[in-house]
Amino acid sequence: MPLSQLLSDFRLFTDIAPNSAPTPTAAPTAVPAEALPAAVVVPSASDRHLLSRFSWGITPALIAEAADAGGARQWLERQLESAVEPDALADWWPHLRWTPAEKLAADQSGEITGYDQSNDFSRWTLIRRMTSSLQLLEVMTDVWSNLLYVSLVRKSFPHRPRYDAAIRANALGTFEDLLTAAILEPAMLCYLDNARSTQKAPNENLGRELLELHTVGLAGGYSERDVRHSTRILTGYRVETDDSCAAYYSPEDHAIGRVHVLDFQHPNTLPDGRGVTAEYLSYLARHEATARRVARVLAVRFVSDTPSESLIETLATAYLDSGTDIPTMLRVLVDHEEFAASTGLKVRTPVEDFVNTYRSMQVKVLPPNGDEDGAAAAILVACASMGQQPFDWPRPDGFPDVGDAWSSASRMLGSWRVHKNTSGGFFPRVGIEYREPEHWIGALPVRFDDLVDRICRLILGKASTEALLATAVRAVDTQPGEIITGVHRVIRWRTPALLLALLDTPDHMTR
Q1: What's the whole-model pTM score?
Q2: Which of 138, 169, 442, 486 is the most buried (most CB within 10 A)?
Q3: Per-domain residue ranges for the chain?
């Protein structure tokens, strides 16, 4: 069942039809105007749509940042021009900055196992997504990490943080530069076995996936001969699997002789094949089939699960005309009418839901202090309970970016559990700071419908709607016109239930 249907059924679970109005109350008592909290500013619907698609979750700080830029479109331009920011989490897990050899030695000695190092990198990734001011860069790093996928398996773990840095450094440049950097990184060479591919013992994994997954795709019409020649071009790039973890180029392992992949031909006469590799990767990056594949990836991520062929063609043309420039494609995408019409069509993946929930609830995770129960460690368990965590997809094709792939009762239960634990501050309890109820409630007394509107603005980045108010009414058994005072049940013990009800709605779980 599609997640959108499950979300819709949640309203039925609460006995509220999607379009039903809340039960009115008779003669509600007025609240003095001076007692009401100042309205929380929210962006326009179009600005909210853009911010939601190109960030890991809307927050009041993000809204203010966009307003300071002159609107969401201007915010996007600022983000496109931003350089990579310093790592504010560098001291949280210092071993992530060790050399690959040091990481492998720590694993072999039992000081920090490769499994624990990989988990810490996933935790670092989650918190960076929650806290980075360069939200567009973090989103695009995820997009390209999924297209050029390298999981946290044992053979690549010592090199994986460096691979992430290479993706991030090129995420807003050209796809040609990004592709070249990613394919020749030690993590990719190890993950797809090119690290041990030689002219005498070629391994076709990277040569094949470079065509099938990373560039032209099956639509490119490549043959088995193309795969073999693609593999020959890439021989010579080696990574030691012993204690040194050294990456180097080995001319004696490069397969010389004419190569022919699709329309690319090269005499390939030199033992040093790095030149032919550079030309080959440039050719693939600028191929029309690659343009359409990259265009589809962006359209599916930022528009809908089923983008039109017209949109894909428009993006592919922009890609080729600009020399594979990524910012150009993003500008064309957000200015396209199909983007404007796609509000609410994208279901968040479990990881997106998890990061967005922490951002929406303005949770602050504290640095790790060696406590395994601390939030810096526990967030990975919480995220995984929703059915996904960073870099855990088991195949080299990357996780599916469509709602049906993440639509199940178990995923919904996992999301609701995390929403409940976060809204009530139930888990994690150590090494984390939650907002006090007063932050959400504001000044008292207040009408319940005004309170719901305030909370919607704070955690959803939008004003209350009929459906949201109806959900809140049912969740805490309080009518719209009721006056909420300090002794009201909503304040005394039902604030978490109210927050939870709004987090469990499609307004939070879609982007």
Answers
A1: 0.93
A2: 138
A3: 1-44+347-511, 192-285, 289-340
